[in-house]
Design a protein that fits this description.
Layout lengths: L6 E3 H14 L3 E4 L5 E2 L8 H10 L16 E2 L14 H11 L14 E4 L13 E7 L6 E7 L11 E8 L3 H16 L13 H19 L24 E4 L5 E6 L5 E3 H13 L4 E4 L5 E7 L3 H10 L8 H4 L18 H8 L1
Parallel strand pairs: 4-5, 5-6
Antiparallel strand pairs: 1-12, 2-3, 2-11, 6-7, 7-8, 9-10, 10-13, 12-13
Helix pairs in contact: 1-6, 3-4, 4-5
Length: 351
């Protein structure tokens, strides 16, 4: 189930909890793309599931397949005191453009986009197919986005390479236009369709290099973007997972980052998290790309009560680093490509 930027209302979380109860044997998984997975579903269940998702503004379209996958972004977007710019408008614009866009409904393989508005790049933009990374240009103070293309892991890992393009954050139409051009380069690269194991965008970047890729993207635009700022560098700060209690950019408000071991929550916990977000926060929750959950907008004076309710529900946030860094893919329990069990194994390792 797609959750663009990891942003959900409590109404949406309650709807997912209800579906988890009715159809998924009481468990759901947060994924590394900030989506929600339900398991044990049968085809007969789908009409009701789709209708209930649509009623709260959620969809599964594009969460899998050779298409634009869920757009990831900082889970603290809009209230991170360190962010350069709020990436939510860009995420929403790209989601609106690519969602059910038949021009990009048959890409060579999956296509993953990350939008990062913070100087600490928690979205891991280097390993996405295409990433937008916020940067404040020193020459004139303009805040905008750089574009990185061709990242990915698997058996042949590549870091994304920077295009010679910079677009101000306020120019949403131009940002979407650059992303359209990048996606068209990927879609139209027939050489990538010859062998599915070499069909990701990273192989096109490896073949072309950033200079040719930039030239091909610029040729697809009917306007001239600025060149990339020459002084951009990735953050070398400590890896950031948003776990714990953090002060927001809004005075007197805080978020609590919950460490969800193996990304797995029960339907009861989902409802309890929604209760806390409604009672003490702003009726919103965020999923993260390290399989965790944030509850924002909690007033400082309400923190003790919110923490007590969360602890009673079995949530934890003050945990050892071995647990903070623990992640698990779907594993052989549900994935037909897996060769071993993962979710219970990671719990054993952490214990």
């Amino acid at each position: 189930i797609k959750v663009p930027g990891g942003r959900m209302t409590t109404e949406q979380l309650r709807a997912l909890a209800s579906l988890t109860t009715d159809y998924a044997r009481g468990i759901s998984d947060i994924t590394t793309r900030q989506t929600i997975q339900l398991h044990w579903l049968t085809m007969e269940m789908m009409p009701d599931i789709f209708a209930r998702l649509k009623a709260v503004g959620l969809t599964t379209a594009g969460a899998c397949g050779d298409i634009t996958r869920n757009l990831t972004s900082s889970p603290a977007a809009g209230f991170d005191p360190d962010e350069i710019t709020d990436p939510r408008p860009v995420v929403d614009a790209l989601q609106s453009y690519f969602h059910l866009n038949k021009d990009f409904g048959d890409l060579p393989r999956k296509y993953k986009i990350a939008v990062e508005g913070s100087p600490v790049q928690s979205t891991l933009p280097q390993i996405n197919d295409a990433s937008l990374i916020a940067h404040k240009r020193p020459s004139d103070g303009v805040v905008g986005y750089h574009f990185f293309v061709g990242g990915g892991l698997s058996l042949q890992p590549f870091f994304g390479q920077q295009l010679d393009i910079f677009v101000p954050a306020t120019e949403l139409g131009e940002i979407v236009d650059v992303m359209r051009a990048i996606a068209e380069c990927y879609r139209d690269a027939e050489q990538l369709r010859a062998k599915r194991t070499r069909a990701r965008l990273k192989y096109l970047m490896a073949e072309w290099g950033p200079e040719k890729f930039t030239a091909e993207v610029r040729a697809k635009l009917d306007w001239t973007p600025d060149p990339a700022a020459p002084d951009f560098a990735f953050s070398d700060d400590t890896y950031r997972d948003h776990i714990g209690v953090h002060a927001q950019s809004q005075p007197g408000l805080n978020w609590i980052g919950l460490c969800i071991l193996a990304g797995r929550m029960t339907d009861t916990q989902m409802s309890q998290a929604a209760d806390v977000a409604d009672k003490y926060g702003g009726g919103e929750v965020r999923t993260t790309n390290v399989q965790n959950l944030l509850i924002p907008h909690i007033a400082t004076e309400d923190l003790p009560a919110a923490q007590a309710d969360l602890a009673a529900a079995g949530f934890a946030w003050d945990v050892p680093n071995i647990r903070r860094g623990a992640m698990a893919c779907t594993g052989i329990e549900f994935c037909n490509l897996a060769i071993t069990e993962t979710k219970l194994r990671i719990k054993e390792v952490v214990a």
